[in-house]
């Protein structure tokens, strides 16, 4: 009798908004031989379109509405309890607009990824496209990193660049950065599920070697 194939790593995606990154991950995960399974999508916002996308794809959803909790700690405790029930191998933050407490982050150390629309360490926080234009930068992009206690500060796994044009607006930059996000996130999630990337003491290990710099995709 043939032994059962080993189960695929279980992925939970957390999203607060429209969920275009989630959609890219769902589409990738439905391709043949994708090495992981999205078992649930969670949100802090009941109206997030990401939940609709998950439902359309027949993926289990859950909502932990942050407005129903008195403190960040109580919200995080409820989210943590739900995640422990789902027991994922990896948590993918895809436009999840809540700052997580250190205890929460520690519970999933090395198993939680985030995408941020800038070339970290530049421009942590919000309004990155506007700030890039104000600074006159010629290059912009997106980073995918391990989540650590420091906001947008965990070791960066991979980045994709775009060129900034003279006539760019925050909206046009957001659109081109998003296209890169949709390409890069499925690639990085695949690497994670294949066991190729790990959070190590000195940064990110790729195939057992410490990365001297983040992996880079470039459109120019
Ligand atoms: C993306 O720009 C992502 O980098 C940021 O939030 C946005 C989410 O977009 N963290 P979407 O909900 O995936 O469309």
SSE order and pairing:
Elements: E1 10-14, H1 20-29, E2 37-43, H2 49-56, E3 60-63, H3 72-86, E4 90-93, H4 102-107, E5 112-116, H5 128-135, E6 139-146, E7 156-163, H6 170-193, E8 197-200, E9 203-206, E10 209-210, E11 215-218
Parallel strand pairs: 1-2, 1-4, 2-3, 4-5, 7-11
Antiparallel strand pairs: 5-6, 6-7, 8-9, 9-10
Question: If you had to describe this structure to a student in words, what would you say it looks like?
Answer:
The protein has helices at 20-29, 49-56, 72-86, 102-107, 128-135, 170-193; strands at residues 10-14, 37-43, 60-63, 90-93, 112-116, 139-146, 156-163, 197-200, 203-206, 209-210, 215-218. It has 220 residues and is an alpha/beta fold. It folds into two domains: 7-108, Formyl transferase, N-terminal domain (Rossmann fold, 3-Layer(aba) Sandwich); 117-142 and 158-220, 3-Layer(aba) Sandwich (Rossmann fold), CATH 3.40.50.170. The strands form two sheets. It has an eight-stranded mixed beta sheet, covered by helices on one side. It has a three-stranded antiparallel beta sheet with strand order 8-9-10. Helix 1 (20-29) packs parallel to helix 6 (170-193) and helix 5 (128-135) crosses helix 6. The radius of gyration is 17 Å and the shape is globular. It binds 5-O-phosphono-beta-D-ribofuranosylamine (GRF). 5-O-phosphono-beta-D-ribofuranosylamine binds at residues 15, 17-22, 94-95, 115-117, 178, 181.
